[in-house]
Amino acid sequence: MKRTFDQAGVNDLQQEILSSDYTQRLHFINFVMNDFAGFMLTYFELRASQIQYLSTMSTALMTSLRIGIADSWNNGLAVDFQKNSSSVDEEEDTPKDIILSRYNSSSDLPVANSLLPTGYFSIRIVYRNATGS
């Protein structure tokens, strides 16, 4: 079943993934690591502009997303996903910022971040003309 690519759709998929046994979760992890674009196209209803963005995404961003998502799920954690937009933003292909945050136990982090669990990963998509930005 394809989900909408929004807060509710991402949360629903992650709940399914994280409530499955580890063998099934590993299938999702491997899919994300080996074919991120294919994973997105398989599990989410994407607009034409989102498919275009996915096909032109930089290797660095794609790699960061693959590793961060896989690491979170491998540690039994949901990715903290936030998407602040309206349907008008998406239909008009409004410029957006994608903000990634990752905590890995091998990183040297300030004490303030030491409360985050190993594998924590967050993705925030903010459309530049969205209300409040």
Report on this model:
It is built from six helices and five strands, in the order βαααβααβαββ. By secondary structure, it is α/β, with parallel strands linked by helices. The protein has a three-stranded mixed β-sheet. It starts with a strand and ends in a 6-residue tail after the last strand. Mean pLDDT is 84; it is low at 105-113.
Task: Give short descriptive properties of this protein.
133 residues; alpha/beta; 3-stranded mixed sheet
* SSE order, one letter for each helix or strand: EHHHEHHEHEE
Rg computed from alpha carbons, rounded to a whole number of angstroms: 15 Å
Number of strands: 5
Tell me the distance between the termini: 33 Å
pLDDT < 50 stretches: 105-113
Task: Name the beta content range.
Answer: 15-25%
Summarize this structure briefly.
The chain has helices at 7-19, 22-34, 36-43, 48-56, 59-74, 87-91, and strands spanning 3-4, 44-45, 80-84, 96-102, 121-127.
Topology overview:
Elements: E1 3-4, H1 7-19, H2 22-34, H3 36-43, E2 44-45, H4 48-56, H5 59-74, E3 80-84, H6 87-91, E4 96-102, E5 121-127
Parallel strand pairs: 1-2, 3-5
Antiparallel strand pairs: 4-5
Helix pairs in contact: 2-3, 2-5
